[in-house]
Amino acid sequence: MDEKSSTIEFDTAKNLREIKMKDDKNKEATIEKLIEPAVTVNIEKSVESSPTLIARFTGIVYILLSAIIFTGSLFISKQLKVDVLDAIIPCYVLHSTILIIYSKFIKHYSFYEQSKRQELFYLFINVFFSTTGVFSFYFAYRYLPLPDLITVRYTQVIWTAIITALLYREKPSIPMVIAILLTSAGVIFVAQPSFLFNSTLSESKTHVERLIGLSIALYSSVALSIMIISNKHLLLKYKTKQSSIMVHYAVVTLIVLVAKVVYSFNIFTDGMESFKNYFFTWNYLFASLVCLLHIVAIVLTQKAVKREHPAIFTIVQSSNILFSLILQNIFSSTKSNLLSIAGSILVLASIVIITGLKFFNKKN
Fold first, then answer.
1. How far is CA 311 from the centre of its chain?
2. Which regions span the lipid bilayer (predicted)?
3. For 312-321, what is each residue's pLDDT tens digit?
4. What residues of the chain score a pLDDT lower than 70?
5. Cα–Cα distance for residue pair 237/342, rounded to 1 Å
6. Residue 229 contacts by C-beta under 8 Å, 6 or more apart in sequence?
7. What CA–CA distance (Å, rounded) separates 188 from 52?
8. Distance from C-alpha of 35 to C-alpha of 162, rounded to nearest angstrom
9. What share of the chain is helix, strand, coil (3-state, %, to 5)?
């Protein structure tokens, strides 16, 4: 959900085995294994090559459907004038309940009894950055149009590459440098700072609001990159169950969302009336039902992960940017200008360079 909000990182058994087999002399390959898309799911089967053409395209169809559901639910909630941070609360209630029942009562996983102190530390890092990253993503939607928000969100692929390169002390390759430059240019085009551009923005969005939203969205992107790396560390070194990691993330995020509602409406003082007028409406009911479809998107993502290479998955999943551009410019009164569209294209190009290079290197 990125829904860490809405808001999104997967691991396969094949990836785990390949990473373990790499020694210190092959750090570059190890870094490439860490540059994966932003969807937190529980995958136990390896990525298999599709034997038929139909099976091959099935994975891509699952990814596209998941992207449409995620992007469409965010757009619909905004058009209904419902804060996405409020609309996704029922989704997180259901998600947390399912994960707790599965982990504790079906699989009988132990959350803390056998955990080491260092493992708990990395688990805290993972939960903190995943929760704040998802929350920041949805919060930034207050200040940025959906295409700009998702464009900045997908710079996470580049941030993950940069952070892992720093951790493994690897010199950046030429394609990575090109991707970083394209991403930087794309973010600048989306932000459109007044000291660089004289373009006329929508009256409802000032330069200050855009910069605030951009800053929050950039933090979300970096935070979710750190979450990917810490998630890998927990899986590889401590053999932490992915479902256990997801339980902590979902429950903590739900607590934060509920706390935000309590604080915003002053429920325990004099805000109960405004709380009822906001939550007990048809708009909120419809928005929350649409956001419940995030659960379906997660299931589709799981199916896609089992069928697609991580690089292909990342490239196709970035179609969120294209879907958001279509929705924004057809069904909304706020249109994207040419600079924003150009920024989205540059970020998409950087994603294709990074993940495409990884895919072809593995093929060779």
1. 15
2. 53-76, 82-102, 123-144, 174-191, 211-229, 249-268, 280-300, 312-331, 337-360
3. 888 888 899 9
4. 1-56, 112-114, 194-205, 267-271, 364
5. 41
6. 34, 160, 163, 164, 167
7. 43
8. 9
9. 75, 0, 25
